[in-house]
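Researcher: Here's the sequence for the chain we discussed earlier.
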Amino acid sequence: MRQAGSETRLTLALLIPSLIGVAVFVYGFIAWTGYISLTDWRGLLPDYALKGFGQYKQLFNHPRFRQDLVNTGVFTLMFLAGNLFLGLTLATLLDRRLRGAGFFRSLFMFPMAVSF
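Model: Thanks. This is the structure I predict for it:
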């Protein structure tokens, strides 16, 4: 029983620095960005006076923003469809018994093997 408590303390001691780093550098900056989006900050001359959600209302009513959302959606769908098609095509070709397939399998797997 004593060893289980010691392992728990060791686990927490090793995890807490990472959790603090994630909390500060991920969620902290997300919160800061959310706060800044509600102020009248224009870049070089920060003004932290809260303006509220009026800027978002103005953004969502702007016709250019709607077109940007449509463009982003179309680009995302085309990109995903292209990646899916290319990936499935390459996987199908590599699954067949073709001459040189071993070389291409090694070529595709090499970056993953090196990353570990």
